[in-house]
Design brief:
Blueprint (H helix, E strand, L loop, with lengths): L4 E5 L3 H13 L3 E4 L8 H7 L3 E4 L9 H12 L3 E5 L4 H8 L5 E4 L4 H27 L3 E8 L4 E7 L1 H7 L10 H7 L9 H15 L3 E9 L2 E14 L2 E8 L1 H16 L4 H14 L6 H14 L7 E7 L2 E4 L10 E7 L2 E10 L13 H40 L4 E5 L4 E4 L1 H7 L3 H4 L10 H16 L3 E5 L2 E10 L2 E8 L12
Parallel strand pairs: 1-2, 1-3, 3-4, 4-5
Antiparallel strand pairs: 6-7, 6-10, 8-9, 9-10, 11-12, 11-14, 13-14, 15-16, 15-19, 17-18, 18-19
Helix pairs in contact: 9-12, 10-11, 10-12, 11-12
Length: 501
């Protein structure tokens, strides 16, 4: 693992040399800028630092505060001010560049190390949030209250929101009402948009988060829905996250209508209820659940003895238990997004008199359409599970390729992954260890690692302890900037019989 690289921008040579020596003793890679008076973004970028320690006054008119703002904006490198100046004017100017720390000379080692660690952690977290903001499929808008305008102003809008609202970045800086009237509500009828504005202002004033559903009405007809979740993200900011739920609402309405149309038939309702119960049965495989639903489909018709159902997706095929082949064939595709991944087919094994659509009644067709939706969701879930298992298998292969013991815990401290070296170290098999917490493993080293891993889960700060004169690292693992577990790395293999210092 490469060392954190610190760039020192200090015009006092002795102070710069002292800082460099102290940082190197702490385990950092420290470099000094050779010519502070000729500093530029290019000279800073050439060193590729992880953190910049910046003096505010660098002599001969060089302004460290202005330069720090440029480094933050153009190079995305965290800057920590190290200065002897602590007057309110200097602090106010420095604060506008949003620095990652402000240290007053003379700086103590502990303060220096903690500030650098916090700056790195903050920069990493901000980076993760930036990626989430730009890649999340839901729309996100951040509003800031402007005292001079007495209004909520659009601070930032993510790409998903701009796509859904069909706006460009020039809408940033506009009042919320102006943004909505130009993008979402410009040709809508009703009071839905005013309700959204009222909800946003109410959340800003009270601090209590609220959901809001916006119904789009045009020519006295509903043509769409959006769901918003509004919360106050800071004293002067309100954020709302939204998504278009038109398709889901339409499906819900369709299912309600179909359910009401089928009320006349107890057999059909029982088939639908049983299918939904099976679909939610987590102890059964997806193929088993779909097989049961195929049987329910076959039994819910006027002539079940001659009814056949076949469901195909990718390399799998499921048939009802009394499958005889189909003379009358009906088919509905299964989709994942826009890609067809399979089909549901049903029919009788011999010719039947026509009813509503071939040999089936309107109610039977409606029932089958509803069950096709259930099957489609199950198939999509099975594909996701297979992809997840593939990713987990790749992760396990990577862990097994390490010749040092590695152990991964989840957010509550249970073992979720380990490699072969760790099995040897703990003298236990993988199946015995998975889902156990460290304090339940009969090993001195596991019991003594348990409180350390609990601290790392709580604080999100890595720790290092020693075992047999070698360091053992306990690192937090992050998911979207939040601690999701712990990874423990041992430097050597062997048996767990020695104490930890």
């Amino acid at each position: 693992m490469s060392k954190t690289k610190i760039l020192i921008v200090e015009d006092e040579i002795i102070i710069a040399m002292d800082l460099r020596a102290r940082l190197e003793r702490m385990g950092y890679e420290a470099v000094e800028l050779s010519d502070v008076l000729d500093i530029s973004l290019g000279s800073v970028a050439s060193h590729d630092p992880d953190v910049v320690l910046m003096d505010i006054r660098l002599g001969e008119g060089v302004d460290g505060i202005s330069l720090a703002g440029e480094i933050r904006r153009d190079l995305d490198i965290p800057v920590i001010f190290v200065t002897a100046h602590s007057d309110s004017l200097t602090l106010d100017r420095a604060g506008r560049t949003d620095p990652y720390g402000y240290l007053i000379k003379p700086v103590k080692d502990r303060e220096l190390q903690v500030t650098i660690s916090m700056a790195m952690h903050k920069h990493h977290t901000e980076g993760q949030l930036h990626k989430l903001f730009h890649n999340i499929p839901n729309g996100v808008m951040v509003l800031r209250y402007d005292e001079s305008a007495h209004d909520l102003i659009v601070e930032s809008v993510n790409p998903a929101a701009m796509k859904m609202d069909r706006v460009e970045e020039d809408m940033v800086g506009r009042p919320l009402s102006a943004y909505l009237m130009r993008s979402v509500c410009y040709d809508l009828e009703g009071s839905g948009c005013f309700g959204l504005v009222e909800t946003v202002y109410r959340v800003w004033k009270t601090g209590v988060s609220e959901p809001y559903t916006l119904t789009s009405i045009r020519d006295d007809s509903i043509f769409g829905w959006r769901e918003y979740f509004v919360y106050r993200s800071s004293k002067d900011e309100v954020t709302f996250v939204f998504q278009d739920v038109t398709e889901r609402k339409r499906l819900e309405e369709t299912l309600k209508l179909r359910a009401s149309d089928m009320m006349y038939s107890i057999e059909h309702l029982e088939a639908l209820r049983a299918s939904l119960d099976v679909a939610l049965e987590s102890d059964l495989s997806v193929a088993q659940r779909i097989s049961y639903i195929a049987d329910f489909m076959a039994k819910a018709v006027s002539d079940p003895d001659r009814m056949s159902v076949r469901i195909v997706w990718e390399d799998k095929e499921v048939r009802n238990s009394g499958f005889q082949g189909m003379r009358w064939l009906f088919s509905r595709p299964l989709f994942r997004g826009r890609r067809k991944i399979g089909s549901v087919e049903w029919g009788y094994s011999e010719e039947r008199a026509d009813l509503f659509e071939g040999p089936f009644s309107r109610e039977e067709i409606d029932l089958f359409e509803s069950l096709v939706q259930v099957i489609s969701h199950l198939v999509e879930d099975s594909l996701r599970e297979r992809e997840l298992r593939g990713r987990i298998g790749i992760l396990q292969d990577v862990l097994d390729s390490f010749n040092v013991p590695v152990l991964c815990l989840d957010r509550v401290g249970r073992i979720v992954h380990l490699n072969g070296s760790m099995e040897e170290l703990l003298d236990m098999g993988r199946e015995e260890l998975l889902s156990l917490s460290l304090d339940r493993i009969p090993s001195d080293i596991a019991r003594k690692l348990s409180p350390v891993s609990a601290r790392v889960l709580e604080s999100g700060v890595a720790e290092r302890i020693h075992w047999e004169e070698s360091p053992v690292e306990i690192r937090p693992t992050l998911n979207m900037g939040l601690v999701s577990g712990v990874m423990i790395l041992f430097p050597v293999s062997g048996r767990c019989c020695n104490d930890i210092s």
